[in-house]
Amino acid sequence: MHQQLYLAYFDSRPDLSAFDVKNMVKQEFLGTEFTFRVIGDSHYIEAPEIEYYELFSCKPVSDETTVTIDLTVGEEENVVYADEEISTVTKIVGEPLSKFDETNEFDVKYKFGENAFTTIKCVNAKTYSTYHTYPEYNLALHSEHTLTTTTNDTKQPTTTNGYQLTT
Fold first, then answer.
1. What is the pTM of this model?
2. How far is CA 47 from CA 12, 36, 88, in A?
3. Structural domain that includes position 25
């Protein structure tokens, strides 16, 4: 059973009125203020000071820079994104729903229904992880996002639209 996800990075802040914000927290991350939001469609994270805008959604995103990812339990995807300011390496793993422990501590957590959660946790000063659970698919999508500031020496190789999708 497949679950499609859409991962998008924007050059500027998208219209937030289109998002159903369920829960949010602001905190320092990577040396700047980040806002982490659980939205009705998954999560949205921004840091305007460094022009970082990430949307991870289970609904289609109408943006030409969106990466569409098909995942099943046991599958893994890696997405690399880099621009002039930031480099992001995202690892997404489809796990069985039993791998998700709702009693763990998270920075942001929202329960949509029985066994249906979206969570965000800052793991350290440059990595955050998320869980998006889909009980109807017996699926817990776990993502880990590692960010680094980009310099000419550290810029990741990417495709022409800024993305590199690897498996």
1. 0.86
2. 10, 9, 13
3. 3-166
